Amino acid sequence: MRYINIPASEKSPKVIFEPKKYFFEMEGNSRPENVRDFFYPIIDTLKEHFDALIRKANKNDDEPIFNFNFKLEYFNSASAKFISDILVIVKNCNENNVKIKVNWYFEDGDEDMKEVGEDFSDMITFPFNFIMVKR
Amino acid sequence: MKSYEVIINHKGPIDLSVIDSILLTLKNYIQDKQLDIVLRKRLYTLAVECLDNIYKHADKSEHHSDLISEFPSRFIVEKIGDDYMLHTGNIIFDVNKEKITNKINKINNHDQEEINKLYKRALMHAEISEKGGAGLGLIVMARSTGHKIKYDFEKINDKFFYFAMQLTLKK
Lengths: 135, 171
Fold this sequence. Notes:
The complex is a heterodimer of chains A (about 140) and B (about 170). Chain A is of the alpha/beta class.
């Protein structure tokens, strides 16, 4: 079982993946210098884990809900593509009986960040839980 | 008379350290002026996408350093009244002129709702290029400004054009 624990930097978000706690979180700013080097390992790890989870999903009804928290302040267009790739994994899980919850955080007044979450949710036809945060 | 202020005026090479330094200047400006959250994020988004575009797509050739000094890349942010104008400029190969024109015209022919649909479709189907671009930059710019992207090409010689783009962000 692979974990992810990437600390935040000025240009890249904090990313935590703790499969035993059923928890994935991405927080901060995302415009990594090399967007492929940053996101590919994260997506590979998630794919590997959730493919395995999907294989046993039907046999294990009492599996807890997996929480995906997105607490993003800013992300560039290339990062948006990779976030959408992560959300396709979520969609795939949902369609294969793996219980998932997506929590999309946005700052009070940041209508664009809320809207972009709604677009992602539309795109994967999976409802998000929208959480407004006061500064 | 409307107020006028130049916030950023960069003419010269645009590499990763120049981008960082320009974005830091812009961040400080945004914080100083305490801009509304939507406006400040849109301004920052536009700046990042414009600079990324120049960094990833400006066509350079080591054999044309004289051209580069005569037609340097540029990135300008100015405030006119309550509105912001962003100007970019960079050299491109003539073969890329048509591709860029078609891409911008396609976006400019859509209204905001259609651009949002275009964005979602592009997200699903985007491929990340060797340069790390997703081909979404122009669509994101159109989403953020809500206005048509203005552009122009100036012929430099048989092989190169200078591509200039202008974005307006209204309060």
